[in-house]
Each structure stands twice: as C-alpha cells, then as structure tokens.
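User: Need the bound-state model for pyridoxal-5'-phosphate:
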Amino acid sequence: MSINPATHAIHADRHLDILTDVSPALHTSTTFRYPQDPDQLEPVIEGESVLDLSTPLVYSRLANANINRLETVLAPLIYPDAKQDELEQLANHVVSYSSGLSAFHAMLVNVVPKVVAIGEGYHGCHGVLSLHKKLHNLTSVDLHAPDSAWDAAGLGKGDIVHIETPLNPTGEATSIAHFAVRAHARGALLSVDSTFAPPGLQDPFLWGADFVMHSGTKYIGGHSDLLCGVLATAATDEGYKRALELRFERLFLGSVMGNMESWLGVRSLRTLALRVQRQANSATELVRWFSTALAAKDTLVCSVVHSVTHASLQSEPWLASQMPRGGGPVFALYMQSTELARRLPGLLQFFHHATSLGGVESLVEWRRMSDSGVDGRLVRVSVGVEEVGDLRADFERAFGVLGKEGKGKEGGGDGAI
Ligand SMILES: *Cc1c(COP(=O)(O)O)cnc(C)c1O
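Assistant: Bound-state model below.
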C-alpha cells in the first residue's frame, strides 16, 4: 500500500507516541536521566558511538525528542517514493540544523571540497563560502562556466557543484539532471538548495542530487516564526554513511535546532502540502496575469512593471518532469524604474514589506534592502495563503496609485535595462 506524503505528514511519527496526547508534547529539557539500574549503564566508547534516531537521549546538543520527531516526519516528504518499511531508516538521512546557512556550513565541513562550482543565488551561501575560503585553500568557479573552465579550476573528486533551483530571487528553475551529469563526470558531489521548491514540488534526488538542502525557515516552518535548516543525503549506503557523519559532526558544530523551534516545525509539517500547493498555484496565477497583461500592453500594468520572472514562464523540456506540479510560490517583478520598486511595497495592503519568504503571509521585498548586488528595479514576491483574487486586486490598486503619481513626472524613471 502506498501512502501519500500528505497523510504521512500527519501520521509518520505515530510510533514515537508514548503519551496519549494527539498534539505532540513540547519537551524543553536539555538533559536526560540515565537508567536507574547500574547494570543497564553503557559507558561511552571513544570512536565507536553511532548517533542515529534510535540513540537514547542524553543531552540536547546531540538530539532531543522534538528534533527526532521533525526528522521522522520529514523523511516521507523528502523521499516520497520510499517504501513504508524503509522510512524509519531514511529518517536518519534527514539532518536538521539551527538555520539554512548552518546546514550549508555543515555540508562544507563534512565534504571539505577544494573547489566549489556555484552560480548566482542566495547571497548568504556565498558568505559561508567566503568563511571557508578564509579558513583554508578553498576556491570557487562559476557554475555556468564551460567544462574547460571547471577543469582549469581543478574541480574533481570530492569537490562540490552547488545549485539553487528555483533561484532566489527570480523564481526561475535550473536543470538538476544537467548539473548532476557534469558533477558526477568529475567525481564531484551535487548539492541542491531546494528551498524555493519544498517537498511536494520537487525531488532533487530523482535527478541525481547527493545532498538536498533547505532553509526550513521558509516553507517547512511556513509561519515566519522559526529558523531551521535541513540537509538530506541520497537514499544509498553512501548517503547513510554521510548522514551519520553529519549527525556526529553536528554535535561539535553545536548547530542543532532549539527545542521550541523543532516542536513548531512538526506543527508546521502537518500542513506543508496544503500551504505550499496553494501558495504555488496562487503565484502561478498571479504570474500568468502579469505576463498576459504585459503581452497585451495593458496600460495599468505596463506603466509600472517592466517584466516578470518565474519557472511557470519557462518552456525547457526538462521542467515539466523536474517540477510536475508547477513553479514555486516566489516570483520577481522588474519594475519600470528603481523608484517604482522602492514605492510599490508601501502601497500594498496584503503584502508585508519584509525579507524572507515561505510563510502563510504574503511578502514583497524591494530586494535592494537586503541584497546589494541585485538590480534596483527588482521586487521579490512571496505568495502566502490569502485568496489570490484579493492579492491581485491589491496589486491593481497599488499600480493605480503609482500610475497616477507618475503622471506629470515624465522621464522620472531609470528604465534602462
Ligand atoms: C533563506 C535562504 C537560505 C538561508 O537560510 P537561513 O535559514 O536563513 O539560514 C539559503 N538558501 C535560500 C535559497 C534561502 O532562501
């Protein structure tokens, strides 16, 4: 019998219930009693301890009940094709961290690559890379450079090719399979930051990923109230070995999730499928409205918006199989001018002007507020769970105001691309 991930998200942790609570208890203890019976005491043996989800709780920097439950519920979502009897084992492959960036850091600490191929994408990951460059002789090469440039940079066995798809902040997708082939041809590992396409929208392991990373702060948390990172390894013996190393190394990185955050994370996973599919559908509908209006030279939209980017506007053949349920819930608007991009957020009623994404609340961000390298005209939109018609009407209302303000200010924009 195959069980849908949406059902797993509610019931995958049932074997962990030792209390009669339907909603899991929040455990706050940092430390746990050893057995009372001296005959049951097993002293730690240097180098022989294996940390996995069956290890008794000792101290919450190793793990705690809330974290173990979160990773247990994540397993059937991250490995949607796994058989029922494999899931308990696969939960060990899902390692949670205190933030998305601490998950990325943990991966670099585990692999110790000499070369990382990386492109555009989340600026924070580049910040982590620069810390590693400071610590040892790590170099990077442009992800989109040709094979000859990768070879000249020395990218090979034990190195990392890191892609982010869909991409922050544009919401556009990249072929995972293409980069899996290029990475594996050199003995390098492929890591995929799948934050913008959480479980349900994309399974990077299907296309050759060795590591899948999420900023769980975004859709996994989903309520803008917790920080979380997730690093999952392929469902292979090699992936299992790596995951055990990651668990052991996490103990010394100290970057475990807090008790409260991991408990909130379980609460969030129950509704992941509902939230994400609705948010993605609404984003696609809004993008379709924008692109149709732009193509039809609609005066209201065209007077303020230059273009829109989202995976749903791409037509590459691999996309339909990589993202069978459509693009993610984030897209970007390039406004006609930097000034318009600065003014739009303050005029919207149902979008908070804030960074981050993935919550039930719709957000917009004039991206220059947090990313200095980005086009000044870019506004990133993270669609929440509100009724999509209300969100569209909100844009229309704001565009009306911007259009009126712009009249009489001829040539006031800096619309050049
Ligand atoms: C937010 C984000 C991160 C960083 O995650 P934190 O949880 O903020 O550390 C990494 N990658 C992407 C694509 C993100 O959006």
